[in-house]
Write a structure and sequence with these properties.
Shape: globular
Number of domains: 3
CATH topology of the largest domain: FAD/NAD(P)-binding domain
CATH superfamily of the largest domain: FAD/NAD(P)-binding domain
Distance between the termini: 69 Å
Number of helices: 12
Helix content: 25-40%
Strand content: 25-35%
Radius of gyration: 23 Å
CATH class of the largest domain: Alpha Beta
Length: 445
């Protein structure tokens, strides 16, 4: 059977592309060897955030007495790992059923099986050959393997939900948001974890101001963080120079590598990822690649946005320009960043100004007991166009969308400062940072 579009990989890039293509009347099939919703929905974004929420609540209850709630014995409090897993998996089940419903509603066919690209227009799945006018590869990525370490010592994130119990003294090897979120998860549960960063930067791509804040926070929390690419694992001991770190299991939160299906013709690769142009088209004209597999971003929402660009391209609608993509980290408090960083502005020779507002002066944050954090805005000096925003707050990952909407329309600090924000809300900090840029802060001494 011939299709207008065949999609390999049912993660956020693939399933969103399929829904939009179906809505536009394209005969569409989506193929995945394992998951509806891909890594993000089944063992990444969604279930891990559900587990983090369980850990946050556990950690929050320990401070109940500060809020006037008595009768809770902290020593009797326990974290039930099996129940936390069950809750997370119930969230996953609800969302996967929702995706399947939307596929069915929009006449998208789902085929479970391993896809092999036979030609520019042919895909083989379990001895069935599918013909398609266009093909989207959206097979994602996974943490790079930790070489030279006994497999039984390693917890791959994909297998985390198979654990009967959590490790008692984990060693987390990796970098980026996943590594930080993982060590935060164990910290909130009171499990002593060590973070080994195989490089010199825990959070590549984030503004050094944010990285500095995180490093100070980890130090204050007494979480051991070691930066080194030269380490040796001997039994259950990790040796880094003259340091020896005892552990019971290693969590692989390494930087990611593309998951590539078997392909012939093979689209051109760059650093192990599929090379694409501004509409995510490969060097094979009718084959596109969206999401992690093209190496442009590891973020689920970026994959979905790229998929929509491709479908629009099929219908003759070309992208207006690069969208600003937020980076979210679900730590405590949350961290979010969008737009250019301070070093990038310096490198581009842009004359800019920084304004900031601390949550220690925000009424809602104080009332909630979440006054740690800040809003930081980087704006072009002459006209005040907002070029970058960084937020540390309990709901930073939600608040960053206001900054994204403003930057999408090339908004300025004047517009931000003059937008009435409801009181009391943590988002008032964005308005206050706008006023700070103007030299007229309302609630800043």
């Amino acid at each position: 059977m011939k299709y207008d579009l065949a999609i390999i990989g049912a993660g956020p890039g693939g399933y969103v592309s399929a829904i939009r293509a179906g809505q536009l009347g394209m005969k569409t099939i989506i193929i995945d060897k394992q998951y509806v919703g891909g890594m993000c929905l089944n063992w990444g974004c969604i279930p891990t955030k559900a587990l983090l929420e369980s850990a946050k609540l556990y950690n929050r209850i320990l401070t109940a007495e500060d809020f006037g709630i008595t009768g809770i014995d902290p020593k009797a409090l326990k974290y039930d790992w099996p129940k936390a897993k069950t809750r997370a998996q119930s969230v996953v089940s609800k969302l996967t059923k929702g995706i399947e419903y939307l596929w069915k509603k929009n006449n998208v066919e789902f085929l479970k099986g391993e896809a092999k690209l036979l030609s520019a227009h042919e895909i083989e799945v379990d001895n069935r050959v599918i013909q398609a006018e266009n093909i989207i590869i959206s097979t994602g990525s996974k943490p790079r393997k930790l070489e030279g370490i006994a497999p039984e010592l390693i917890i791959e994130l994909e297998r985390m939900f198979d654990l009967d119990a959590l490790p008692k003294k984990p060693l987390i090897i990796g970098m980026g948001p996943v590594a930080l979120e993982t060590v935060e998860f164990y910290r909130m549960l009171g499990i002593p974890a060590t973070l080994l960063v195989p490089g010199d930067n825990l959070l590549p791509g984030l503004d050094p101001y944010i990285t500095s804040y995180v490093n100070k926070k980890l130090k204050k929390a007494k979480i051991p963080v070691i930066y080194s690419q030269d380490f040796v694992i001997e039994g259950k001991i990790c040796k880094v120079g003259d340091k020896e770190i005892a552990f019971d299991q290693i969590v692989n939160a390494n930087w990611r590598t593309a998951i590539l299906p078997e392909m012939n013709p093979l689209p051109e690769l760059e650093n192990g990822f599929i090379k694409v142009n501004n509409v995510y088209q490969t060097n094979v004209p009718n084959i596109y690649a969206v999401g992690d597999v093209n190496g442009e971003s590891y973020l689920a929402h970026a994959a979905s946005a790229q998929g929509l660009v491709v479908i629009n391209h099929f219908k003759g609608v070309e992208p207006e320009g690069n969208k600003v993509i937020p980076i979210n980290i679900y730590a405590v408090p949350e961290i979010a960043q969008i737009g250019l960083t301070e070093p990038e502005l310096v490198e581009q020779g842009i004359d800019f100004k920084i304004s900031e507002f601390s949550l220690s002066a925000n009424g809602k944050a104080l009332a909630e007991g979440n006054a740690e954090g800040f809003v930081r805005i980087l704006s072009e000096k002459k006209y005040g166009e907002v070029l970058g925003v960084q937020i540390v707050a309990s709901d930073a990952t939600d608040m960053i969308s206001e900054a994204g909407a403003l930057m999408q329309i090339e908004g300025t600090v004047y517009e931000l400062a003059n937008t009435v924000h409801a009181h009391p809300t943590v988002s008032e900090a964005l308005m206050e940072a706008g006023f700070d840029w103007l030299g007229e802060p309302i609630h800043k001494g």
